[in-house]
Write a structure and sequence with these properties.
22-stranded antiparallel β-barrel; mainly beta; 11 helices; elongated; 897 residues
Length: 897
């Protein structure tokens, strides 16, 4: 069935099912109230709605207070402050790769692809980047912290994040704010405007909002010395975590090596003469500690600059008491442009190279340097951009239409259709054009001129009139002509599309001896595809040294039906109420066929105060469009090579899609409950144990984890069946980290929540604390307590966020603490078989302070995050678990009328 016909048929069937004289449905009972208004909140833990503390599947509500805490610039960063999430990145952070500056939600540390993100209960194309929704229109965020595939579909293995908009917003909102770190960098500016109104005598509503944000980025690694750190292997094989490890085999002036790759500890000076390599306090192999050398991460920004703008509009109209139609449209633009990292070629220099001065030739001979020799160079002096420069321009357009309403005795329905497109334009400039670079480096002197050797020999058939020779001897000597000839850029443009349609019906068809039975059922379908619009000719020919884009085209579709039921079995007023709940979903994928997801559980409320709950589910996750078809992405990092027992600098790894992937299957158990004692009004407590086991996992491991697993599988195969490509000297040339179906992941832990609100004077005093203790996160090995920045899934044992908030009509103050437990940096062992020497990382406590003052329609606010400027642990590049920016000030003004 075509997409348009499917949508029309679904909505028409629901409208046809409504009787002519529909009546207003009874509200769903709820025990959760907002802290500000006392009105009820009905959260989306399942299709059969309950409040957060009453939901059979544990659900946490992120309300107005939490959304404002810390003045975070995106919803993803708000969620990252919650213990149930593992921070996985922000628009300003990039791990030296082409991840295109997105913000995602990552429940349980299982990867953001295992957290399903919805907007008002439906899928949207921008769900992989939470920056696309204007924050001024967000009423709250429901976080379902348990398997929910049966209710909401593929991807809800870790849980569901449902962004709820304030559909009834009226009036004007506007605001302006700015922020800056205590080191004078990471400045950001943000402005937003929103308007909502009624029309047609109150039957219609319209709202529109837009926002603009610019972040200038942070480049001050020298101001954050813990970020210039890494693992150093001493001559005896002992690994140590140290500040400022630098390369000996590459240097931005040019490090001189023998033909076996061993350094002479000599470098070229900018004038072409030769001097000693500026070694540090301790030197071994390819690294030295300190000195005046360089490390590739010296060049990577602490946080990358970006600019985003978005606009969102929604209109709704109540046709009758039984039907309300709505339409939404949005536009979002994200642009980023930043220095990536320098290229680091290691090239053979012949004795007659035309740029070698007579003085340098004599110095080489005096130092015992044999000819030819090898030069290791960090190319940070190439053209106006200096080194590799990454740019992206991502544009999202989305539209949705739907209908919802009620009829009969308590029946509700809804249906929607959503179409979205993301156009992504990426480029990586200042790359070496491999063949041209090699020709330009091989330069000879002819008379008083230096020319490319291919133009100096007697054979005219191999001449290249455009070849301009490159002088690599000393920083700053590469001519503009050589840059124009030997360097170029890669570019790709692709479009990702999503069409999603869904319809659901819920009600209470009959009652048991204990009360009404709730049911919900419906169907959904979606079509996803990615199409390439452009790839540059040099990429298509494979001519570039670091990243050659490739065209990506592909798609899949899925059609689903689902049902859910909640049956009360016992209801003794004031004593006990027992309900059992079940759900099932059948999904038919065009790529892998049919698959079932289901869940079963129940709740037992005792004495109106204590609620016990249990849920067991079978959840699924199909491969995403990116995992199936995405092009190759390039990353670079240092790694420990267990096959040779030594570290290696500057290892290139490639990630990319795999069309042969099959769906993941997960089983989730949650046991817990909540306690709301009637004798302490405003107090709510909850505790939930979770256990998640995932089979057939789709993932790409970190560079180090990939190498380690290869070694563990077969120490005698240094190529790991082709996964690792090695140069002639045995060093690693590249590592393939494409998506694969691996054996299994598993995790288990404990979530705790407590909240209390009480009137104080003219306002309200509120306390709320959230904590997660992770017992196990098994991904090949147990990742709990591994908190170094090189661990893809490493997670702390404890994360706790607690806050105290006071608010009245004129004044507000908010104090929050964020605790992150420590652990070890890495499980790596050195050449002597011993673990990392100083492997312990201490816990961190971050304190945030917020103030606001209300004057008429104006609200002035100020925030300080990481008030005491707690330093990050020793980190090679950046840490998503710990704060790397440091103390951050922000403030602004809001106007509402």
């Amino acid at each position: 069935m075509k997409k348009g016909l499917f949508v029309a048929a679904s909505i028409a069937a629901l409208i046809a099912a409504m009787p002519a004289q529909a009546q207003e449905a009874e509200p769903v009972p709820s025990h959760e109230a907002t802290a500000d208004t006392g009105s009820e909140i009905v959260v989306t833990g399942s299709r059969i709605q309950r409040s957060g503390f009453d939901a059979p599947t544990p659900t946490t509500v992120v309300g107005e207070i939490e959304l404002a805490q810390g003045n975070r610039p995106s919803i993803a960063q708000v969620l990252n402050d919650m213990p149930q999430f593992r921070p996985a990145g922000t628009p300003a952070t990039t791990g030296g790769n082409t991840d295109n500056s997105a913000s995602t939600a990552n429940l349980r540390g299982l990867g953001s692809v295992r957290t399903l993100t919805l907007l008002n209960g439906h899928r949207f194309v921008g769900s992989n980047d939470l920056n696309n929704v204007p924050q001024s229109l967000i009423q709250r965020v429901d976080v379902v912290t348990g398997g929910a595939s049966a209710a909401w579909g593929s991807g809800a293995v870790g849980g569901v994040v449902n962004i709820i908009l304030d559909d009834e917003f009226e009036g004007w909102k506007m605001g302006a704010e700015g922020g800056i770190s205590s080191r004078g960098d990471a400045a950001r500016y943000r402005g937003d405007l929103a308007w909502g109104t009624k029309f047609a005598g109150g039957r219609g509503r319209f709202m529109i909002a837009g926002e603009y944000m610019k972040e200038r980025g942070a480049f001050g690694r020298k101001d954050r010395p813990n970020l210039e750190a890494g693992i150093f292997q001493r001559p005896d094989g002992q690994l140590v975590l140290t500040r400022d490890p630098n390369y000996t085999i590459i240097n931005n002036n040019g490090s001189i090596l023998d033909t076996g790759g061993a350094p002479y500890n000599l470098i070229f000076n900018p004038d072409g003469s030769i001097g000693p390599f500026p070694l540090g306090s301790e030197t071994s192999g390819q690294f030295t500690v300190g000195g005046n050398g360089q490390n590739i991460y010296d060049y990577v920004a602490v946080s990358s600059p970006y600019r985003r703008a978005n606009i969102f509009a929604r209109a709704s109209y109540e046709i009758s008491d039984a039907a309300n139609i709505w339409i939404e449209g949005s536009y979002s633009s994200m642009k980023s442009s930043f220095g990536f990292f320098p290229e680091t070629p290691i090239v053979l220099i012949r004795p007659d190279n035309g740029f070698l001065t007579p003085g340098a030739i004599g110095q080489l001979a005096d130092a015992g340097v044999t000819n030819p020799f090898v030069l290791g160079r960090i190319l940070d002096d190439v053209g106006p951009d200096k080194y590799l420069h990454y740019s992206s321009n991502r544009r999202q357009i989305e539209g949705a239409i739907g209908i919802e309403g009620s009829f009969g005795e308590g029946w509700k329905y809804n249906a929607y259709y959503d179409h979205g497109e993301i156009r992504n334009n990426q480029s990586l400039n200042n790359q070496r054009i491999s063949a041209r670079f090699d020709e330009a480096v091989d330069a000879v002197r002819v008379g008083n001129s230096v020319v490319c050797r291919i133009n100096a020999d007697a054979d005219p058939t191999n001449d290249d009139p455009g070849c301009a020779p490159i002088n690599l001897f000393g920083n700053g000597n590469i001519s503009a002509e050589a840059v124009s000839y030997a360097f170029g850029g890669a570019q790709t443009i692709d479009t990702t599309k999503l069409d999603a349609v869904g319809a659901a019906l819920s009600g209470q068809p009959f009652s048991t001896w204990a009360g009404p039975v709730d049911i919900a059922f419906g169907g959904e379908a979606r079509w996803e595809e990615i199409a390439n619009n452009y790839v540059d000719p040099m990429s298509m020919a494979g001519e570039l040294s670091t990243l050659n884009f490739a065209p990506v085209n592909g798609g899949f579709n899925v059609k689903e039906v689902f049902g859910e039921i909640n049956v009360p079995l016992l209801d003794i007023e004031g004593v006990a109420r027992l309900e059992v709940n079940g759900a099932a979903r059948y999904s038919d994928y065009s790529t892998s066929g049919g698959i079932w997801a289901w869940k079963t559980g129940g709740t037992l409320r005792l004495m109106d105060d204590l609620l016990l709950r249990a849920v067991y589910s079978r959840d699924i996750r199909s491969p995403s469009i990116a995992e199936y078809f995405t092009t190759r992405e390039t990353n670079i990092a240092s790694a420990q090579d267990p096959f040779v027992g030594a570290p290696q600098a500057n290892v290139v790894s490639f990630t990319g899609g795999n069309p042969n992937l099959t769906p993941e299957i997960s089983h989730t158990l949650t046991l817990g409950g909540s306690y709301s004692p009637h004798y302490i009004p405003g107090l709510r407590l909850s505790v939930d144990y979770y256990k998640i086991d995932i089979d057939n996992v789709i993932t790409t491991l970190s560079l180090q984890d990939t190498i380690n697993q290869c070694y563990q599988a077969d120490p005698a195969d240094p190529t790991c069946g082709g996964v690792i490509v090695r140069d002639g000297d045995g060093s690693i040339a590249s590592v393939s980290r494409s998506f694969r179906n691996l054996a299994s992941y598993s995790t288990k832990g404990l979530d705790l929540e407590a909240s209390y609100a009480m009137p104080v004077g003219a306002g309200t005093l509120r306390f709320r604390a959230l904590a997660t203790h992770v017992f196990e996160l098994f991904v090949g090995s147990d990742q709990v307590g591994i908190v170094g920045d090189q661990a893809s899934f490493g997670t702390p044992k404890w994360r706790v966020t607690g806050g105290i908030n006071y608010q009245d009509d004129d004044f507000g103050i908010d104090v929050r603490g964020r605790y992150v437990s420590g652990g070890i940096y890495s499980e790596q062992v050195g050449g002597n078989g011993l673990p990392l020497l100083n492997n312990e990382i201490d816990a961190r406590l971050y304190v945030d302070l917020g103030l606001q003052f209300n004057t008429g329609p104006f609200t002035f606010f100020a925030n300080v995050n990481n008030l005491f400027d707690s330093d990050p642990p020793l980190t090679q590049y950046t840490s998503f678990i710990y704060d790397t920016i440091g103390r951050y000030y922000s403030g602004g003004v809001k106007l509402k009328f």
